[in-house]
Design a protein that fits this description.
CATH superfamily of one domain: DD-peptidase/beta-lactamase superfamily
CATH architecture of one domain: 3-Layer(aba) Sandwich
Strand order of the largest sheet: 3-2-1-10-9-8-7
Number of strands: 11
Oligomer: single chain
Distance between the termini: 25 Å
Helix content: 25-40%
Structural class: alpha+beta
Strand content: 5-15%
Shape: globular
CATH class of one domain: Alpha Beta
Number of helices: 13
CATH topology of one domain: Beta-lactamase
Largest sheet: 7 strands, antiparallel
């Protein structure tokens, strides 16, 4: 992270210093009380960090030591928007169309009734294959992905309902990026998205020489099954991201490693119409607007809670129905705020109305109620940081 990406004081970017300290205090409280082993939080505006803090300690590279702003965390499903941005770019350039059938791009996908699934349905989690299995190591190659795709079956008719696809949809998007982008999806994202954004510490595929910076994941108590069951995101699946072989893959639906500051700055580029701080154009404003409007329909509702999905293209929109806090945006962000959280309580979103973005990471897993209260509190405090 360059010094130019950090403001000398919060007020320089229109953030109230006292309110920012309240964000930091809330993140620190969980560490001080032993709820979490470490936590990291950042708030940004006007293309720079208003501030970033890291608290606690974590096992990093096999050694327990203080967590710092250089510590990397698995950001789980917050990864999805980083990958989606590459798809947005392909759409912008005309290399891909939302209405295309996936099977027209990946013939191997078109088995067992999946030939009708469109690119848009995949990105909205209405494609009908939420539980399709593919292990990280097998998904690291196109050959492994294609073998899995051929065996996948539909759980329900595409577009008939909404159900979150924790990893399956983004394995498909990874293959689409490779076929239409002409190179490995991880390389494409580094060269066309995160690299031009100046975000060198968003690692989709954690290199071995960076593994010593990654915070080891821990469950702080005996895991309690959440409402609706574990789905794919079981404790066993979460803990695989302590394995460097899995980290190295760069699971497109939830395996990137980063820090809170980089995530807050990622959303700054999106809030700035796709232009990085150095003036590099990554995406056109129209492409971002196209991707971040709500596309799911009224019948696309969360099967557990019943609230509207409010999905754009692999991104969540806060909405004006009073349920934004259920989507990870707290109670203060504008209806236009967009982003995507991650397992364990990772937070990553930006608000076009205020220009504020926030990133939050932790390596500790707690019960879903405690996690939900924390997400609501930190998101609400961050959203209200403006001067």
């Amino acid at each position: 992270m360059t010094l130019s990406a950090v403001s000398s004081k919060p007020e320089d970017v229109g953030v109230d210093g006292e309110k920012l300290e309240a964000v930091f205090a809330r993140a620190k409280r969980d560490v001080d009380h032993g709820v979490l082993p470490s936590a990291q939080v950042a708030v940004a505006r006007e293309g720079r960090l208003a501030g970033m803090r890291t608290f606690g300690s974590a096992v990093q590279g096999g050694e327990e030591r203080a967590a710092t702003d250089q510590t990397l965390y698995c950001i789980y499903s917050s990864t999805k928007v980083v990958v989606a941005a590459a798809v947005w770019l392909l759409l912008e350039e005309g290399s891909l169309k939302l209405e295309e059938k996936v099977s027209e791009i990946i013939p191997e996908f078109g088995t067992n009734g999946k030939d009708v699934v469109t690119v848009e349905q995949v990105m909205l989690h209405v494609g009908g294959f939420p539980h399709a299995p593919l292990r990280a190591i097998e998904g690291s190659t196109s050959e492994g992905r294609l073998k899995a795709f051929a065996g996948w079956r539909l759980n329900w008719e595409p577009d008939s309902q909404y159900e979150y696809h924790p990893t399956a949809a983004h394995w498909v998007l990874a293959e689409i990026i490779e076929r239409r982008g002409g190179k490995d999806y991880r390389e494409f994202i580094r060269e066309r998205i995160t690299g031009p954004m100046g975000l060198r510490d968003i690692h989709l595929g954690l290199a071995d020489d960076q593994a010593h910076r990654a915070a080891e994941i821990v469950f702080m108590e005996e895991p309690v099954e959440p409402p609706g069951g574990w789905g794919e995101v079981t404790p066993e699946a979460v803990l695989t991201f302590n394995d460097q072989a899995v980290r190295r893959v760069g699971v497109p639906g939830g395996g990137a490693f980063s820090n809170a500051g980089q995530m807050a700055l990622f959303y700054q580029v999106l809030l700035n119409g796709g232009e990085a701080r150095d003036g590099t154009r990554v995406l056109k404003p129209e492409a971002i607007q196209f991707a971040t409007r709500v596309r799911t329909k009224d019948h696309h509702r969360d099967p557990i809670w019943g609230n509207k999905a409010n999905r754009g293209l692999s991104i969540i929109v806060a909405g004006d129905d009073g349920q934004a806090f259920m989507r990870g945006f707290g109670r203060v962000a504008s209806p236009r705020a967009f982003g995507h959280g991650g397992a364990g309580g990772q937070i990553a979103w930006g608000d076009p109305e205020t220009g504020i973005s926030v990133g939050y990471c932790t390596n500790g897993f707690v019960d879903w109620q405690t996690m939900g209260r924390r997400i609501t509190a930190i998101s609400s405090l961050a959203a209200g940081c403006g001067v």
